[in-house]
């Protein structure tokens, strides 16, 4: 029934309905956040474990650099699998519903993460151990390929007018919160077991604890309502059988520019919360706890800035906020990573924290900006493809590229150059795209 045709209601009823709708949208946003946090917890646990122990456990070699490269290569492998997740879950999400895709992606991630915690090491199983590790990492990657797009769309498509960036940004706090949650498990485990005990087997604890989180996430997601896009008959949605093919054919420019817009932030984030945990102790002699504290504090600052950045994007537009973040990250990247040369926990923490706040200015608004670039029938696939490919190119390979760069240039400043160049690419791509704040979202 249209708004015009609705009968008049007694005083107070409309207010109650609005309160109920607001409560429902808030529950959906929180459900999206919880699921995304769990998925990124699983991913962060692997990234931290790769920096600390997985190289020697699964890739024995006489060279610590080779071990680190091998561990980070398996980190990158999961990003290579993300496009497959875009195809699989994008098709499910655009054809069958956002909720179904999200539940399925969480199940896949849970199975893969717990599986890593149960794997035998190279010493026990030989070559089978790294093969199984890579296989489970591929499954994690497939899951992540479907997670982000569904989480932000479920929140954004329920959002009231003028607050789309705000609600879509809530799942964007998932990556830093997932990293903080992983640190909250890993730091006590390291303290209790010690470095030797952690390497000997205690590293499995954070992976196995994922079982509890997955059960909670599935319970929460099973209780949310489907996106309003799927309230319409399937014939009205006219979703193509292969959404990705249609997306590439009809919107190639927006696809490429959307990828470019998100690529710089991905590099800044993964260099900060993954690569620095390995580079700081091994190359610069910084205590492991110092790097974990600095990265965790920075992640908390980024999470705290997520909602304010989104509110600003709802008021002034997506592009001004993203452009400000891109310029800030490009300028600050070299001082940020150069701060590691001091070895001082306070200086490193302050530099990383400012860097992730600037990163959040880029990261928070893209949750609304990327979906708004595409029509509803291709929105899950379009949003997922742009963000996931940017994450793969800018973030997935960042630790691997950084490790290679530091074999040639023995300075953390090279990390700033690398991240700064990618942020300038994001700046150029965001400038080439239109503002989308006032875009109608039901077509």
Q: Could you please describe the fold and organization of this structure?
A:
Residues 1-20 are annotated as: Disordered. GO terms for molecular function: transmembrane transporter activity. One of its GO terms (cellular component) is plasma membrane. The chain has 443 residues and is an all-alpha fold. The protein has a single domain (22-432), classed as Up-down Bundle (Growth Hormone, Chain: A). 80% of the residues lie in helices and 0% in strands. It contains 18 helices and no strands. Helix 1 (13-58) packs parallel to helix 7 and helix 1 (13-58) runs antiparallel to helix 9 (210-221). The longest helix is centred in the N-terminal third of the chain and has 46 residues, at 13-58. It starts with 12 loop residues before the first helix and ends in an 11-residue tail after the last helix.
What value does the average pLDDT take?
A: 85
Category from helices, strands and their pairing: mainly alpha
Strand content: under 5%
Q: How many whole angstroms does the radius of gyration measure? A: 21 Å
Key traits:
18 helices; Growth Hormone, Chain: A; globular; disordered N terminus; mainly alpha; 443 residues
Provide a compact summary of the structure.
The protein is mostly helical and 443 residues long. It contains 18 helices and no strands.
List the helices and strands and how they pair.
Layout (H helix, E strand, L loop, with lengths): L12 H46 L5 H32 L2 H21 L3 H4 L2 H29 L7 H6 L4 H29 L1 H5 L1 H12 L12 H4 L5 H8 L1 H33 L3 H29 L1 H21 L6 H28 L6 H18 L1 H11 L4 H20 L11
């Amino acid at each position: 029934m249209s708004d015009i045709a609705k009968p008049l209601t007694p005083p107070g009823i409309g207010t109650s309905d609005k309160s109920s709708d607001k409560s429902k949208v808030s529950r959906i946003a929180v459900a999206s956040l919880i699921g995304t946090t769990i998925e990124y917890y699983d991913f962060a646990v692997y990234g931290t474990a790769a920096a600390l122990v997985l190289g020697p456990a699964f890739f024995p070699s006489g060279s610590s650099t080779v071990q680190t490269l091998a561990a980070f290569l398996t980190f990158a492998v999961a990003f290579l699998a993300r496009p497959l997740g875009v195809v699989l879950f994008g098709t499910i999400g655009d054809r069958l519903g956002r909720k179904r895709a999200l539940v399925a992606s969480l199940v896949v991630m849970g199975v893969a993460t717990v599986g890593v915690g149960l794997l035998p090491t190279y010493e026990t199983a030989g070559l089978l151990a790294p093969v199984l590790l890579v296989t489970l990492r591929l499954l994690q990657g497939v899951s992540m390929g479907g997670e982000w797009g569904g989480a932000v769309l479920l929140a954004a498509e329920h959002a009231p007018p003028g607050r789309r960036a705000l609600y879509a940004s809530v799942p964007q706090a998932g990556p830093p919160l997932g990293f903080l949650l992983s640190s909250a498990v890993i730091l006590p485990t390291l303290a209790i077991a010690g470095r030797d005990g952690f390497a000997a087997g205690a590293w499995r604890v954070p992976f196995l604890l994922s079982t509890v989180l997955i059960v909670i996430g599935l319970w929460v997601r099973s209780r949310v309502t489907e996106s309003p896009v799927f309230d319409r008959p399937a014939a009205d949605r006219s979703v193509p059988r292969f959404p990705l093919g249609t997306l590439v054919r009809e919107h190639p420019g927006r696809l490429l520019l959307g990828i470019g817009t998100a690529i710089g932030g991905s590099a800044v984030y993964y260099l900060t919360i993954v690569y620095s945990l390995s580079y700081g102790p091994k190359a610069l002699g910084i205590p492991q706890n110092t790097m974990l504290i600095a990265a965790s504090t920075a992640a908390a600052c980024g999470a705290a800035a997520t909602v304010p950045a989104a509110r600003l994007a709802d008021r002034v537009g997506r592009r001004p906020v993203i452009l400000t973040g891109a310029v800030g990250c490009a300028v600050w990247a070299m001082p940020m990573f150069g701060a590691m040369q001091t070895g001082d926990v306070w200086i490193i923490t302050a530099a990383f924290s400012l860097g992730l706040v600037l990163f959040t200015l880029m990261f928070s608004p893209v949750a609304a900006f990327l979906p708004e670039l595409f029509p509803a029938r291709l929105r899950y696939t379009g949003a997922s493809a742009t963000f996931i490919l940017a994450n793969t190119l800018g973030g997935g390979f960042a630790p691997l590229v950084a490790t290679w760069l530091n074999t040639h240039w023995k300075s953390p400043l090279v990390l700033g150059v690398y991240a700064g160049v990618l942020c300038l690419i994001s700046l150029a791509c965001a400038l080439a795209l239109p503002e989308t704040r006032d875009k109608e979202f039901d077509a």
